């Protein structure tokens, strides 16, 4: 059992930089998933327009996924992940101050485009951090932590949204900024070892 714990600790340490980004990212995604419909309807959007906004956010993923994956390979996985995850924070703090539904949908399309590298970069980074023969286990540990953050984020975001969009979105943005900073610090420590 001690060997399993030691291997698990080593694996978590190898994943630490990526988890520092992925967990707040998943929290932010949970914030959107939990509150975005309420947010848009509160600004006068119809239910159709709410669905359209989710589609607009996803369109870049359909057309640009492979290209941004190649960008992450060329620019660097961690650099791509940090920069694109950080952009989520900027959109999160901007949205509560906007009331125009068409503008919100347009910004959602832009956000979907600019933040798209985060997914391929994080997944490639996690694959690269996996010990030989343990890629599935490594992805499983990564997904467990990420979805755990998403579950907690959904509950907290729903509660905070009762105090206003800025409370929910601002909290997610703050966690992302902290996660980006933690990622960079952890990476320096890992490289120094």
Tell me what the structure shows.
The chain has helices at residues 2-42, 47-75, 77-94, 101-114, 118-129, 135-161, 165-192. With 193 residues, the protein is an all-alpha fold. Helix 1 runs antiparallel to helix 5 and helix 3 runs antiparallel to helix 5. The longest helix has 41 residues, at 2-42.
Keywords:
single chain; 193 residues; mainly alpha; 7 helices; globular; disordered N terminus
Can you count the helices? 7
What fraction, in percent, of the residue positions are helical? Answer: over 70%
Query: From the helix content, strand content and strand pairing, which structural class follows?
Result: mainly alpha
Largest β-sheet summary: none
Tell me the distance between the termini: 26 Å
Task: Please sum up the structure shown.
The chain is mainly α and about 190 residues long. It has helices at about 1-40, 45-75, 75-95, 100-115, 120-130, 135-160, 165-190.
Q: What order do the helices and strands come in, and which of them pair?
A:
Layout: H1 2-42, H2 47-75, H3 77-94, H4 101-114, H5 118-129, H6 135-161, H7 165-192
Helix pairs in contact: 1-2, 1-3, 1-5, 1-6, 1-7, 2-3, 2-4, 2-5, 3-4, 3-5, 3-7, 5-6, 6-7
